[in-house]
Amino acid sequence: MTEHTPTPWAYRPREHDDWGWLRGPSGELAAVAKGAADSDWDAHRRAGTDPYGPNAAFIVKAVNNFDALVKALGDALAYIDLHQEVCQFDPPEITAARSLAGQARGRS
């Protein structure tokens, strides 16, 4: 299985990047964000704006913070496990957090 493009990703870091382009740290094209199918393309061209910009910025934030979020979730669950005597069962929120942490680590 091929690895994902290394992080950090950047949104349109090059002057002539097209709408929604996301690049990896070596400048390689990592992904292209899409959306806003009902946009007025000509208005965006005149204004110099990217109709895919909000999606692209959201993807970059999610990708660049993914590892830190998974670590923080794991640390929080480890803290809960350490203090298990306070809570002898996992409420639904903790069960969901354990499931998400497993998925994020590729174990589910």
- Helices, by number, come to 3
How many DSSP E strands? 3
How many structural domains does the protein architecture include? 1
Helical residues, percent: 40-55%
- Form type: elongated
Strand order of the largest sheet: 1-2-3
Give an account of the 3D structure.
The chain is mainly α and 108 residues long. The protein has one domain. The protein is built from three helices and three strands, in the order E-E-E-H-H-H. It has helices spanning 41-47, 53-82, 92-104; strands at residues 10-11, 21-23, 29-32. A three-stranded antiparallel β-sheet has the order 1-2-3, covered by helices on one side. A hairpin with a 5-residue loop joins strand 2 and strand 3 (29-32). Helix 2 (53-82) crosses helix 3. The model has no long low-confidence stretch (mean pLDDT 88).
